[in-house]
Amino acid sequence: MNWAGVRPMEEVTSELSERKKGINKGAWTAEEDRKLAGVIEMHGPKRWKTLAAKAGCVYDQNVDRVLTISAGLDRCGKSCRLRWMNYLRPDIKRGNISDQEEDLILRLHKLLGNRWSLIAGRLPGRTDNEIKNYWNSHLSKKIKRRAKQFGGETTRGGSLKVQSRKGGGEAKAEVKEEETSKASDEESNINFDFDDFFDFSDENPKYLEWLSRFIDVNDAVCQF
DNA sequence: AAAGAGTCCAACCGCGACCAG
DNA sequence: CCTGGTCGCGGTTGGACTCTT
C-alpha cells in the first residue's frame, strides 16, 4: 500500500465539516444507519460531531489514515447520537413493554418523576425516549383513568420530589424536599409514598426476583 | 369508501452542565 | 475566571398509521 498522498484523519475531518453547509433532517435512511453504525464501530460512540463528519470515510486506524472518502452524513452530531442511542445500539430491546417492566416504570416514576434517563437506566435495553413515549401514550392515561375510578385518591404518604438535573455527565439523582419539575407536577397528584413504593408484600416471588435485578431494594430503603 | 379523529413514536429543539484551553 | 465546544436531558412536534363515524 502506498500511503503517499493519503491525508491524516484530522485534515479530512476539518475539510468535511467545512464542506457541510446543509444539514439533513427528518427520518433516517438505511444507508445513513449503515454509515453511522460503521463509523461508531471504528471510533466508538463519542465525539458525535466528529463522527458525523467521519461517516463516509473509510479509515484505517492502524495507520491513522483515510483510505477513501464517499459522501458523509449530512447530520448534526446531536442527531447521530440520538439515532444511535434510540435505535442503532446493539443492546436495544425491541418489542412490547412487559407487565413487569410497566410496573417498574410506574414505581420508578412515582419515585423519580419525569427523569426518563434514570428510569431507563433501570430497564436494560429500553431507552429514555421509548419509556417517555410509553408513559405519554399509555401510562399517563391509565393513571388518569384509575384516579378517576378511585376518586383521585392516589397517595397516603408524604410527597418527595426529585431535583431535575438537566444535562451534563452521568445522572445523579439528588433527592430534595423542595423542587419543582414542571412535568412531574402535572402528574403529581401522584405523590411518592415510600410505603407504597417499597411494599412488595403482595408481589409474587418470581416478580421480586426479576425486580431485584434492577433495584437493590434494601439499598434503596436504606438511602432514605 | 372516505374523511376526520385519535394514537404512536422517531426525531428535533432548547437548555443547562461539563470540560478543556 | 472565562469562553466555546460538546454532550445529555426532558419537552415537543409532525408524520404515519389505525380507528371511528
Automatic annotation (TrEMBL):
Which residue intervals define the domain Myb-like in the entry? 20-88, 89-139
Keyword annotations of the record = DNA-binding, Nucleus
Q: Name one GO molecular function term.
A: DNA binding
Q: Where in the cell is it found?
A: Nucleus
Ranges of residues in domain HTH myb-type:
20-88, 89-143
Q: Which GO terms describe its cellular component?
A: nucleus
Q: Residue spans with biased composition (Basic and acidic residues)? A: 167-185
Q: Spell out the Pfam families in the cross-references.
A: Myb_DNA-binding (PF00249)
Stated name of the protein: Uncharacterized protein
* Species of the source: Nepenthes gracilis
